[in-house]
Amino acid sequence: MGSLKKRRKAKINKHKRRKKLRALRHKKRTWQK
Fold first, then answer.
1. Domain parsing of the chain, residue ranges
2. Burial grade of 20 (CB within 10 A; 0-12, 13-18, 19 or more)
3. What is the largest CA-CA distance in the chain?
4. Which secondary-structure segment (H or E) carries 33?
5. What is the pLDDT of residues 2-32, one digit of tens each?
6. Rg, Å, the chain Cα set
7. CB-based contacts of 10-17 (< 8 A; 24+ apart in sequence)
8. Backbone phi, then psi, for 19, in 5-degree steps?
9. SS3 of 1, please?
10. What are the residue ranges of helices labelled H in the chain?
């Protein structure tokens, strides 16, 4: 059960990281313009 909880936490972290990356990319694009 503990490992399952850990896995779920990792999934959430992955999603957060992806969201951050997307925001960063968006910032870069606006910066170039």
1. 1-33
2. exposed
3. 49
4. none
5. 777 888 888 888 888 888 888 777 776 665 6
6. 15
7. none
8. -60, -45
9. coil
10. 2-32
